[in-house]
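Whiteboard transcription, Tuesday session. T.W. wrote the structure tokens on the left side:
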């Protein structure tokens, strides 16, 4: 199973897509709508900022980061959040849920079977 590597406040976290994570996300953001916008070639400007913040929050929370949705919202609003990291989160979620591979594998690792 692939993992998303991301950093929050200098600490690295790893996220795997689980049913619980998808349910948490889809309490506020419909992933099919997000995927449709993304596949149509839209950039992050086409997504509501609150949706991007919610996705990032859910992935961080699902990875064990001690974060609140307000902390993530403030990070995005103040431009502290890296836009490439935000796009990696969107790519990763779409890829894991719908099977469309991201353009770049950077930030995503495959677990090695032993």
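and on the right, the sequence the group agreed on:
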């Amino acid at each position: 199973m692939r993992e998303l590597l991301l950093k929050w406040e200098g600490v690295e976290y790893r996220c795997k897509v689980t049913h619980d994570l998808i349910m948490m996300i889809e309490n506020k953001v419909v992933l099919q709508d997000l995927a449709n916008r993304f596949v149509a070639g839209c950039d992050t400007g086409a997504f509501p900022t609150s949706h991007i913040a919610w996705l990032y929050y859910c992935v961080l929370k699902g990875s064990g980061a001690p974060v609140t949705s307000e902390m993530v919202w403030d990070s995005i609003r103040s431009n502290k959040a890296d836009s490439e990291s935000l796009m990696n989160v969107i790519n990763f979620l779409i890829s894991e849920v719908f099977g469309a591979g991201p353009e770049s594998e950077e930030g995503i690792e495959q677990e090695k079977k032993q």
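Someone added at the bottom: The longest strand covers residues 2-8.
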